[in-house]
Design a protein that fits this description.
It is built from 11 helices and 15 strands. By secondary structure, the chain is an alpha/beta fold. It has 2 domains: about 120 residues, 3-Layer(aba) Sandwich (Rossmann fold); about 200 residues, Dihydrodipicolinate Reductase, domain 2. Strands 14-13-12-11-7-10-9-8-15 form a 9-stranded mixed β-sheet. Strands 3-2-1-4-5-6 form a 6-stranded parallel β-sheet, with helices on both faces. Strand 4, helix 4 and strand 5 form a beta-alpha-beta unit. The N and C termini lie far apart (about 45 Å). The protein binds nicotinamide-adenine-dinucleotide.
C-alpha cells in the first residue's frame, strides 16, 4: 500500500522528511509554506509536483493525502497538527511536539478522536547507536537504570539573535525545548518512568554576545531574544530513579557534547555524539558504549554501528510511514511526548519560582 504525504514548512528540516518518506516508499505530493518562494524552490529541489501557501489550501486541493508532516516554527505545531488530524490525516510533527503540555494535550485529544497516528521528530531514538543500546536494554544486559545524565551542550551555538528560535512566543523556549532530544532519549532508555519532582535553574548568559552565536542557524532578525541560553535540572521519578539534565546553547565547554549516560544495575552505558565547532565533520564521533564487570575485571565495550550523519532524522521519518502502514512499531508515542513536555514545563516553572515542582 502506498501513501501520499504533504509537507508544511519548506525550511531546513524538511529535506530529511523527504528522504525518510522516500526511503519508506511514500510520495511527497505537495509542499506548503506561507512563503511561496520557499515552497517553490523546495519543490523544485526535491522534485515535488505541487505547492500551496497553507495547510488549509493543501487539504482542500489534495483530499487524497494520507498524511501531513509539520516542519514549521514550534508555535504552529499544535494548530496545524489539529487541523490535519481533524481532516483525517496521519501526522508527523517535528520536535518539540508543541510549546507546552497544554497545547500537546489538545493535539493528543485530536489524534484520539480521529483515530489517526501522531508521531514526533524524536529522531535520536532512531540513531544506530540508540537502537543498538535498546537491544542491550531489552536483553537485560543493563538491568534497571537508577540514574542517568542527559546532556546537550554547545559552546557557541545560539541559533541567531532575533529569529524565531530565540522568540519565546514563536519557539516556546530556548535549549530546554530546542535541545530536548537527550532528555527524550534518557527517558526512552529508562522506560519512561513517571516523573515526580523537578528542580531546575535556567540562565541567560551570553544572550547579547555575538561571539556565542552558532556558525549555522538562522540569520539575525527583528524578532525577540527572550529565551534562556542554558538550563540545569534534576528530575526524580515515582520509583526512585533520577535524571540530571544539562541543556545549553552557550556554555564554555571543550566542544559540543550530545550524550545520554546511565548507570544500570548490571552495566553502565553511554550514547554520545561529539560535534566539531562548525557542526558535523571528520572529527565528529558517535559512540555506543557499555561499562561492565566481567570475571573480576572492569570491562569497557564499544558497540560498532553504521554511521548516520543525520542523527536518525531520515530513519525516524521512514519509521512514521512504516508505522502508518502497519509494517513497524512506532518509535515514539504521543503519551511519551506528553510526559516529556510535562517535564520541560516543570523545568521552566521551577526556574521561574526558584523552587521544586511536584508533578
Ligand atoms: N529533529 C531535529 O533534529 C530538528 C533540528 C532543527 C529543527 N527542528 C524543528 O523543525 C521545525 C522547523 O525548523 P527549521 O529549522 O526547518 O525551520 P525554518 O525556519 O528553516 O523553516 C520553517 C519554515 O516554515 C514556514 N512557515 C512558518 N509558519 C508557517 C505556517 N503557519 N504554515 C506554513 N509554513 C510556515 C517558514 O516560512 C519556513 O520556510 C522546528 O519545529 C524545529 O524545532 C528539528
Amino acid at each position: 500500500m502506498a501513501i501520499d504525504i504533504g509537507i508544511v514548512g519548506a525550511g531546513g528540516m524538511a529535506s530529511y522528511h523527504c528522504k525518510g518518506f522516500a526511503q519508506a516508499g511514500a510520495k511527497v505530493l505537495c509542499v506548503a509554506d506561507s512563503n511561496e518562494q520557499k515552497a517553490s524552490s523546495f519543490a523544485k529541489e526535491h522534485g515535488i509536483e505541487h505547492t500551496a501557501s497553507s495547510l488549509t489550501e493543501m487539504l482542500q486541493r489534495f483530499p487524497s493525502l494520507g498524511a501531513v508532516s509539520i516542519v514549521t516554527p514550534n508555535k504552529f505545531h499544535a494548530p496545524l497538527a489539529i487541523e490535519a488530524l481533524q481532516g483525517g490525516k496521519h501526522v508527523y510533527c517535528e520536535k518539540p511536539p508543541a510549546r507546552n503540555a497544554v497545547e500537546l494535550q489538545a493535539m493528543l485529544d485530536a489524534a484520539q478522536l480521529s483515530g489517526k497516528t501522531l508521531m514526533f521528530g524524536f529522531n535520536n531514538r532512531a540513531r544506530p547507536e540508540a537502537q543498538a543500546m535498546v537491544t542491550y536494554l531489552q536483553q537485560g544486559v543493563v538491568g534497571r537504570i537508577n540514574s542517568a545524565q542527559a546532556t546537550w551542550v554547545r559552546r557557541a551555538g545560539i541559533p541567531g539573535f532575533g529569529g524565531w528560535f530565540t522568540d519565546k512566543e514563536l519557539s516556546g523556549g530556548g535549549p530546554v525545548i530546542d535541545l530536548l532530544h537527550m532528555i527524550d532519549l534518557a527517558l526512552y532508555f529508562m522506560g519512561f518512568p513517571k516523573p515526580k519532582c523537578v528542580l531546575a535553574s535556567t540562565f541567560n548568559d551570553f544572550r547579547d554576545n555575538p561571539l556565542f552565536k552558532g556558525p549555522w542557524g538562522i540569520a539575525d532578525g527583528t524578532m525577540a531574544m527572550d529565551v534562556e541560553t542554558s538550563a540545569h535540572a534534576m528530575v526524580t521519578f515515582e520509583d526512585g530513579q533520577c535524571l540530571m539534565i544539562r541543556n545549553s546553547w552557550a556554555e564554555m565547554n571543550e566542544r559540543e557534547v550530545v550524550s545520554v549516560v546511565f548507570q544500570g544495575s548490571r552495566a553502565g552505558g553511554k550514547v554520545q555524539r561529539l560535534f566539531a565547532r562548525d557542526g558535523y565533520d571528520e572529527t565528529s564521533i558517535d559512540t555506543c558504549s557499555l561499562f561492565t564487570e566481567e570475571y573480576g575485571k572492569q570491562v569497557n565495550r564499544q558497540v560498532i554501528t553504521e554511521k548516520d550523519e543525520t542523527m536518525g532524522r531520515v530513519a525516524n521519518a521512514s519509521n512514521f510511514v512504516q508505522s502508518v502502514l502497519g509494517n513497524e512499531e512506532p518509535l515514539n508515542t504521543p503519551e511519551q511526548a506528553l510526559t516529556l513536555m510535562r517535564i520541560t514545563d516543570a523545568i521552566y516553572e521551577s526556574a521561574r519560582t526558584n523552587s521544586a515542582v511536584v508533578l
